[in-house]
# Entry
Amino acid sequence: MYTLIKARLASKFELETCYTLEEALKLYALYQMELDIEAAKSEEMKREHETGRH
# Structure
């Protein structure tokens, strides 16, 4: 859950008192999906730039 705290998605206090483990894991999964989507978009833009397509 360190990742959620570091990303400022939740505080340690919130994780301990407001979220169930299931909710915290869902939040983490959503955060990971967001990062994956951003990385895929970045990679796609890089490939398009390298091939000269816009």
Notes: The mean pLDDT is 93. Helices lie at 2-6, 12-17, 21-51. The radius of gyration is 16 Å. Residues 47 and 53 are 8 Å apart (CA to CA).
